[in-house]
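Regression test case RT-17, inverse folding.

Input:
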């Protein structure tokens, strides 16, 4: 998916822009013709066309639902997004905060769900910061289904937790709020302590910063959780690591060999070269950019493949994963 209009994208009206905290604003969107918008399930996101310093691009934002009844998602009369302002980075959130106003028109895609809620009971929902957006929708869905769950929501300060009031009214005792600035240890999020109170049979859904997701996966699997019971969604593109080096990647189908810089992804190198690979999230979660590996050893950084698939090294996700050696050959 490139900056051009994706198939099936459409325009919506920004009905309202509401500040939620000092850094987070909510955007309420309605169909231009006033009809119901395409339905979705908890965990889904839409992509919004934004302007960045590099030009027009698309950014993914989760759909927030705080109403525990099915019509809010099956035939919604509006979409609700919440966007945290980031003054550094690629510029999508800055555009949303500084350029988008009530009455404006935005172009978005239909909802896509790469972070689906399954049918298991006794789910554990973990949200860090703006990661609450899909998690809040999951809580609403579980309440509508009368299924047991617990929601653990953490941030730098309790006062800066978006939707905290609405979630208190919605979830009651199932909600646990934490702030890094709290004096009491019980009011500060301790992942290891939480996991020690749970059972590996309980499904975990976690969304937020990469550090929170990586720690949840590492600590939970060390305690016996099957990897498939830990679902995650990352609210940032994969960040380069200090140890990353340049390498060559041969795209065998395209008959092109590219140089991938230390701070560049294979996907971005392909796009810069004028290729048209399939992609969506740019975070290693959706699986759309998966390609076959013909030669070379992969440094897997995705959240899609199982451990056995990573060890086999037959496929990779070019938005985040890299080569461990100077050269890689992929089926692209």
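Golden output:
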């Amino acid at each position: 998916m490139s900056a051009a209009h994706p198939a099936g994208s459409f325009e919506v009206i920004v009905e309202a822009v509401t500040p939620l905290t000092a850094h987070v604003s909510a955007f309420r969107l309605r169909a231009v013709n006033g009809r119901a918008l395409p339905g979705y399930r908890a965990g889904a996101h839409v992509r919004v066309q934004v302007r960045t310093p590099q030009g027009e691009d698309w950014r993914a934002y989760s759909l927030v639902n705080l109403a525990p009844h099915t019509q809010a998602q099956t035939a919604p009369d509006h979409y609700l997004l919440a966007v945290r302002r980031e003054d550094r980075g690629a510029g999508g959130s800055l555009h949303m905060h500084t350029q988008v106003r009530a009455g404006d028109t935005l172009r978005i895609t239909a909802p896509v769900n790469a972070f689906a809620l399954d049918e298991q009971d006794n789910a554990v929902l973990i949200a860090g910061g703006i990661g609450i957006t899909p998690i809040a929708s999951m809580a609403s869905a579980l309440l509508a289904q009368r299924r047991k769950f617990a929601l653990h929501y953490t941030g730098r300060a309790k006062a800066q937790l978006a939707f905290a009031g609405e979630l208190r009214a919605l979830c009651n005792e199932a909600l646990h709020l934490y702030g890094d600035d709290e004096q009491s240890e019980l009011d500060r999020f301790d992942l290891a302590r939480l996991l020690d109170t749970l059972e590996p049979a309980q499904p975990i859904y976690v969304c937020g910063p990469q550090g929170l997701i990586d720690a949840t996966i590492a600590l939970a699997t060390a305690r016996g959780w099957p990897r498939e019971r830990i679902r995650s969604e990352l609210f940032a593109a994969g960040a380069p690591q200090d140890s990353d080096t340049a390498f060559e990647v041969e795209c065998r189908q395209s008959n092109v060999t590219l140089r991938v810089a230390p701070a560049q992804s294979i996907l971005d190198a392909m796009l810069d070269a004028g290729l048209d690979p399939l992609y969506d999230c740019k975070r290693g979660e959706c699986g759309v950019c998966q390609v076959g590996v013909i030669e070379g050893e992969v440094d897997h950084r995705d959240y899609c493949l199982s451990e056995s698939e990573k060890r086999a090294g037959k496929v990779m996700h070019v938005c985040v994963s890299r080569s461990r050696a100077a050269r890689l050959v992929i089926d692209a």
